[in-house]
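Hi R.,

Here's the chain you asked about this morning:
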Amino acid sequence: MTGSIGAVTFRTKMKFSPGSMILSLCLLGCPLRAGQLAEGDLVPTVTAKDQFGQDFLLATNVQFLLVAAEMASAKTANQKLAEQGPGFLERHHAAYLMDIHTMPGVARFFAFPKLRRYPQRIVLVDSAPALAAVPKRSECLTVFSVTPAGRILKIAFWNPFSEPADRCFVR
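And here is the predicted structure, written out as tokens:
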């Protein structure tokens, strides 16, 4: 291959091994995935509304961020958190986000009135990219421990099927 940059001409010889050709073909056929959030990263900005239609703003006093990505674990988490009574999340300086971007319109028609009965604030995230970088584990909610500067201090997972609600708030 020959090319030039300004007055400088360069010549390179490209060699492909069978392994590099196979790897190149595999990478071309696979979509690249964005990196997952890790400890030390800034908590991403999320624009959403809660179950009452109120805007959500991640405040600096939030120390824990719970993220539900699966409906079954979200329903169980809703029940467990509700059993703790009103103000439970606020006392622990926590915010609870539920990913609803895959929920069909008909299901929303029935689900939203039920969500309004829960005493805790549930932030309904309706955008796939908003939570795409959140690490996920089957049957679990992702729990971010957040610094006052908005950085992720720790990432943990809470299984609402088998663990108590206060398990989320361990630094």
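One quick note: The CA atoms of residues 41 and 50 lie 25 Å apart.

Cheers,
M.
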